[in-house]
Amino acid sequence: MKKLKYLISILLLGTTVSCSDFLQKDPPASPSQDIFWQRKSDFDSALAGCFSIMYEWPGEMSQIIACFDNLTDNSICQHNEDTYGRSQTIALGDLDPNTTGYVSYMYSHCYTGIARVHLVLENLENYSGSDMSDEDRNFIVAQCKALRGYFYSWLYQCYREVPLVTSSLNLDNMYQPKATRAEIYAQIMQDFDEAIAALPDKPYSDAQMSGYFTPGTLKAFKARLMLGEAYDDNGKADPTKMAEIVPLLESIQGYSLADRMRDNFLSDKQLSSPEIMFSVRYLAPNITHSMDLYYGAWTTCGVTRDLVDEFECTDGLKWGESPLTISVDESLLNTNATAEENYNEREKLFQNRDPRLRETVTHSGYATFPDEGFEENGRIKLTDQQQTGFGMLKLLQPTTEMPSYSTISDADVVILRYAEVLLMIAEAENEANGPTSKVYDAVNAVRARSEMPPLPEGLTQDEMRERIRHENRVEFAFEGQRYFQLKRWKLMEELVDGAVDPALPAYIKVFQPAFYYWPIPQGEIDKAGGILEQDPNYV
Questions:
Q1: Cys bridge to 432: 163, 242, 315, 521, which one at CB 3.0-4.6 A?
Q2: What's the mean pLDDT when you consider all of the chain?
Q3: Long-range contacts made by residues 533-539, C-beta under 8 angstroms, separation at least 24?
Q4: Does the predicted TM-score (pTM) go above 0.90?
Q5: 3-state secondary structure of 155
């Protein structure tokens, strides 16, 4: 049974919330501020309410994080709704200040979360109850600072400049101008560093830290942002900045790779995973999501042929170049048909391939779950909606029937895994010092877990860079990583603009340089009376 850290009874805690709708009234079922903050359990519930922002609908920080891949060369979205972040709208180049989905919800939810954090911090400062020890107080403060840094890290990656709010707003300061990127970055690093120093250095699987930020988690989140800062506008890395990242990541302790990559996404194995470093927690029947329906029956992430081709053959050579390649009739692949001959032809693509292909992708509307103990059920019909002929399997739970509205899903959404730490070490070390043994060791550890052969010796720095980027793509597909990695490497124009799947020739992706940062939602601009200015690329 999962250990539930997030209480659903306190979702909206206070009156002062954010730059967005700064006055938020208590819902009828929530306690008044006048009788709240009277005991330690109130603060525990309030902290849970801060964390709960991550799974509020539509779940841009949780259940639809996989839809970020629809903005890349990994997948397409056939449903143009807020439910999926408006990822089809954005992918096809329709991005402006009135775009909803990811653009509006990320902004409003992050600031709502930041406002809740400030309520906890400010009320805790005035609390003198004997039921809270200094250790308890320090833990709550550290988690609040980690949360504020985390919310700002999303804002920092998605928008060019945003307001920097570090205390509750009131009628006198409710509208805030944008801060510089340097100021936002400094605040994130300060919050993370202070939290790291105050928290016990235990892994995420530890009973005390389960469901919370750990020092190792925060170091990895710091490294993500530092990697972004180490590349210039042309995608060229600064070796000095890269060299600073390696020891930070190497100081992370207490984690290791799970036996199998997909084990990290199976509900019954997640709590015991030594690899998961942070996740958004769910628990049926009170806190559930619809990911099996979204990504199974509705194929919200239609996998591209380009992603399928990225997975190597088991000899470590590219598909098409390896002698293990099985030739296919392409005319049968580029169709949504699920007839038996189409199934058999697509199945050839999965033969002699990196095991992660089967752990990540399904085809022809069917799925099999032999590694989860469902051998006797054979292949299961998942959907009739795989427009590209391929769908996502990675986040689906084993099943014997097509997911439906009645399907209850409560697998945790994995946000950070130790495999990413290893590949970040490889990326930073390679850019700082070239393909040293440290780089080989880190990449090969991830490959070996999936029974893939080690990288060939003697790779150049450029060759190793491509291998690391390949490994990131096949290891972290549909974990919300590739969109931000391609932006980090300044490869969106090269790999995404004009991208098209052979099965959907009319679905042509559009990416303009302005899209590296999203516009501030127009509603926020309108009510700020000229104090908050729009990103110049969207004026």
A1: 242
A2: 93
A3: 533/177, 533/178, 534/97, 535/159, 535/160, 535/161, 537/160, 538/96, 538/97, 538/514
A4: yes
A5: helix
